[in-house]
Amino acid sequence: MDARWSTLPYYLGGYSPEFERYAREDLSATIIRSTGAGLGAALCAAREAAPRLLIGGDCFSALPVVFARRSEIENVYWFDAHGDFHDEVTTSTGFLGGMPFAALTGNACGHLLEFLGEDPVDPARCKHVGGKAWDEGEKERMEAAGVEVLLTPPSHLDRPSHIHIDVDALDVSEVPNVTHPAPGGLSTASMATFLEANADRITSVSVSAWIVGTKPPAACVHLLQHLIRALGQGSRCSPDGRI
Fold first, then answer.
1. Which of the listed CATH numbers 3.40.50.300, 2.40.10.220, 3.60.21.10, 3.40.800.10 matches domain 6-231?
2. Residues contacting 98, CB < 8 A, separation 6+
3. Which of 22, 76, 104, 108 makes an SS bond possible with 99, Cβ 3.0 to 4.6 Å?
């Protein structure tokens, strides 16, 4: 696996120079820049770059990694305190950031997938992990769509998998400066153990970051550096192209 972080320094399509600067300084990340305006253009730029390790300002950053590498991926594990499974009808706020997991699975934002020219990922290949701040009916809709909902990660991945981590799934006492904090969460140590134990089955990783424009928490930097060490020896996955 390419042992370098790339960064898509945008939040829902809006460029953040501060996020780019911190990614360069704290993580020595390479930067992916969009040549157009809006969320779709930013995701297109990331998909073209096809990084294996991507940090973005919001959870839509998972989509271009999965789409670019879908022939290698059989399952997607989505670590998030929130469901991210609203659509244009169920949302009470219209907040686009509550829809990316639904968009990935074809349950929201159909116009965005059409813009990207991509088919959705089969929900039966997707697992949501670590939810602790569900909106009313959201978990039930997710399960009805075919997504498996897990409170904690499995000890062993049995298929080549993409891992998406919204850092608000982590213990808020370790990673406090997130946009929508929720009490509790997985410790960074337990997350690191999971990633290290399954390095040979992890095809790619996307991370949705701390509050855009703020310095990354020390615990988060440590986890991302740990990921580089754990995954930097190269993926030994055998792609079947089933996603």
1. 3.40.800.10
2. 82, 83, 84, 85, 86, 91, 135
3. 108
Within the chain, which residues score under 50 in pLDDT? Answer: 234-240
Max CA-CA distance within the chain? Answer: 44
Q: Tell me if 48 sits within 8 A of 76, measured CB to CB.
A: no
Quickly list DSSP for 146-176.
Answer: T-EEESS--S---S-EEEEEEGGGB-TTTS-
The C-alpha angle with vertex 29 and arms to 189 and 160, in degrees rounded to 5, equals 55
Instruction: Tell me which amino acid residue 189 is.
Output: A
CA angle 48, 51, 54 (to 5 degrees): 115
| CA–CA separation, 121 and 124 (whole Å) | 9
Amino acid at 86: H
CB 58, CB 42: distance < 8 Å? no
C-alpha to C-alpha distance for 216 and 88, rounded to whole angstroms:
31
The partner residues of 150 in beta bridges, in order of sequence, read 129
Phi, psi of 20 (to 5 degrees): -60, -45
Rounded to whole angstroms, the Cα distance separating 93 from 134 reads 15
Can you read off the two tokens belonging to residue 141? 């809709």
pLDDT of residue 242: 55
What one-character DSSP code corresponds to residue 55?
Answer: E
Tens-place pLDDT, residues 94-134: 999 999 999 999 999 999 999 999 999 999 999 999 999 99
How far is 22 from 181, CA to CA, in rounded Å?
Answer: 21
133's tokens: 């701040």
